[in-house]
Amino acid sequence: MNIRVTWRIAAFPLALAGLSVVPAMGCDKVSELQNDVCCRDFTPGADLATVKWGLEGEAELNYGAFMQSVSDFTGAAGAIVADVTSACQAIALDLGADVATITATKPNERAEQWCELAVDALGDATADLSITFQPPSCTVDASVQANCEARCSANVECQLTPAEIVARCDPGQLSGRCEGKCTGSCEGSANLAVHCEGTCQGTCEGTCDGECSATTAGGDCRGECQGTCTGECRGSCSFAAEADVQCNADCSGSCDVQFKAPKCRAELKPPSAECQGSAECSGSCEASASAKASCKEPAVNIEGGAEVEAAIATLKANLPRLLVVAHARGELLLASAEAVVQAGGNLEGAATGSVKAGACLIPATNAITQAVENIQASLTGSASVMAKLEIAPPSP
Fold this sequence. Notes:
Blueprint: H1 3-19, H2 26-29, H3 34-37, H4 57-94, H5 107-122, E1 130-133, E2 137-139, H6 142-153, H7 162-167, E3 174-177, E4 182-187, E5 194-212, E6 221-223, E7 225-239, E8 250-255, E9 260-264, H8 279-291, E10 294-296, E11 300-303, H9 309-345, H10 355-388
Antiparallel strand pairs: 1-11, 2-10, 3-8, 3-9, 4-7, 4-8, 5-6, 5-7
Helix pairs in contact: 1-9, 1-10, 4-5, 4-6, 4-8, 4-9, 4-10, 5-10, 6-8, 8-9, 9-10
């Protein structure tokens, strides 16, 4: 894990220390009512939109958005550490490791230990491997952010529409279904082959007007194509200018007709004035959207000799999940974590206006602390496998 990320994670406990001051008054003062008032509503990953926190006006809106961002962030952190653990465990076991070797029970410790075992199991096999992959990408869930912002403004008319997604997204970050001509790229993945007549970042399945890294007995390409791929691409296909191929997945770029189900790969621009709530509430909405971003597993092409077939097979199946974490998802969650902690600091003691709100900061703070540990373990574990495979870290 690079130094920049390490320092960002190291700073979170200091910020959390201030956040934990508020809930100290909660459950101690009302221990006889603990089952009723000590936050049965907060659960990582839960939808808290209908929960009433016992505060008034803007304080209720700000606190509700904050708690939703904590729920979304901690739920995503739990999912990412589970993905890394599962991928590293599968690699280790596929290459002969003993399942009884790992005895840790905490999610973050299991992730790190399984990834260490995966690195050991790979051994010298990695020296004979050639690995290329489509860079993974994540798409921010615009509907999560916009619907949250609508609650911040308390304006029932501030609902997200496809046209508003297009208007609030930088054109270069827009994607969606295109039923006309897509100019740009067609976004497939390891699990979704897309029609292609252009440059394939991934595995080309068809003909390659150039050099192909692997071919079938009949001469068709089934690997990385250094040239124009015509057929299907398990990855992202950038269409040639003269191509007349319809994208059968999300088009990234422009479409000569209106996008259907448009998405934005970045944070949305601020809403109109009548739909804006407080800066604190909007910040929590951005954190929720980042935490709930959807990420595509990248197409991976791995080549090597017959003696490393087992390593190739397990890496093709499991490396995409680790690449998503190391090259895309992990960075989004770090940004979300910073926004969550900042939003918590902006509460300025507002939660003391409600016993329930004050008490709920106890499990929320504990969940944030565990989530940060899960993210750190996920990044450390995936990075150790990347280093073993000599895959360079993403650019800052």
